[in-house]
Amino acid sequence: MASSSAPKASGEEGITNTTVAFLGPFHSYSHQATKIVFPDAKWQLQPTVTIKEVFDRVQSGACPYGVVPFENSTHGTVTFTLDNLADRAGEYADIVVCDEAYLDVHHFLLGKRLPPSYSSSSSPPPQPPQQNVQNQNQNQNAVPPTDLSHIRRIYSHPQAFGQTAAFLRRYLPAGVETIEVSSTSRGAELAAADGDGTGGANASAAIASEWAGRACKLDVLARCIEDRDDNTTRFFVLRRRGGREGRREGGGEGEEGGDVEDVGEGDGDEEGEGDDVYGGQQYKSLVSFTVPHRRAGALADVLDCFRGRALNLTSINSLPSLDAPFQYLFFVEFEGSRFDDPEGRVGGVFEDLERVAQRWRWLGSWRNRRGRR
Ligand SMILES: O=C(O)C(=O)C[C@]1(C(=O)O)C=C[C@@H](O)C=C1
């Protein structure tokens, strides 16, 4: 299920508040990811209704940690998380990313099986011609369903709909309503509550994990329906800057005296370790910035700062800055840590950003849990 080794959350010594916020309800993928990072029984995992609420609880100190989905290998960035990291209303000044986790995501179509008395036909529903199937399901494990003709609506999180688009296009009868809800496990709850228990001809289904299906006592209508069998979601662990319980593991104080070093245990068993001389590849960092909108080459100038310091970029995103229409806030993730920076490359790029960007912000440094692929 999980594709990363179980990292131990750092900064645990002396911690008294042992709560961790995640997007619930229980049995969501966020819950699974949270259990990877915080496996010990001492952690009390607190489900929230929205991703924003995870940010709120970490910022307010109600929870020392929060876990949020950041990006999916098939469907891309989780915009709800990026929106909050953008922090355009200035609500999350103290939030930083301190770790990451990868989860292999296998979606199930869950509902009530159609009893034989209702079944109009035992053959599979008609399929569109092959050439009309774009983004064709590459997942060899996907088992075509037998009869889904009773399904009228499907609940799920927008990301899960995006990750199963080819399957839905191919196997779902026309006219089925897709209803976006706050999480996949919430979708499973709603499908279970909708059903009359008989699997009648006006049934609801959900796209969620097998775990959520079991918890909600739903039948498996189709398994592993993700469009790609390498479907993976990367999660960020959030914490508040300056937590007294923080611990540094090498590296200087930086200008944020009191910041915590949250980059894992350094036990040397992570993938990708040991093959980068200066160690920057073992870590990642995230910054956001804006550039002077009207100056030609302004974005290229900022990116050039990273090239100049030989810092490899691992992701880039943008959102409307809301400063003015069609101006953007950029996010760049790169290999390197502000806390383990023996050659001063990361510190150096921060000085460069100070000169070149309009405004910028460091959003965290953490241990790379996957290494280069
Ligand atoms: O809905 C869930 O179960 C979540 O945890 C959210 C989420 C996401 O936002 O990407 C997490 C993993 C999957 O990619 C699908 C949904």
Automatic annotation (TrEMBL):
Q: What pathway is this protein a component of?
A: Amino-acid biosynthesis; L-phenylalanine biosynthesis; phenylpyruvate from prephenate: step 1/1
Annotated region described as Disordered, given as residue ranges = 116-144, 243-279
- Which Gene Ontology molecular-function terms are recorded? prephenate dehydratase activity
GO (cellular component) term, any one: cytoplasm
Q: Which PROSITE patterns match?
A: ACT, PREPHENATE_DEHYDR_3
What protein name applies here?
prephenate dehydratase
| ACT domain location | 287-367
The protein's matches in Gene3D superfamilies, at most eight in alphabetical order, are given as: 3.30.70.260, Periplasmic binding protein-like II
Species whose genome carries this gene: Parathielavia hyrcaniae
Biological process GO terms, please? L-phenylalanine biosynthetic process
- Keyword field contains Transferase: no
The residue ranges of the Prephenate dehydratase domain are: 19-240
Q: Which InterPro entries match?
A: ACT-like_dom_sf, ACT_dom, Chor_mutase/pphenate_deHydtase, Preph_deHydtase
Annotated membrane-spanning segments are none
Entry's CDD domains? ACT_CM-PDT, PBP2_PDT_like
Which EC number(s) does UniProt give?
4.2.1.51
Q: Write down the superkingdom of origin.
A: Eukaryota
Swiss-Prot/TrEMBL keywords: Amino-acid biosynthesis, Aromatic amino acid biosynthesis, Lyase, Phenylalanine biosynthesis
Q: Where is the composition biased (Low complexity)?
A: 130-144
Q: According to the UniProt entry, which residue ranges have a biased composition of type Acidic residues?
A: 252-276
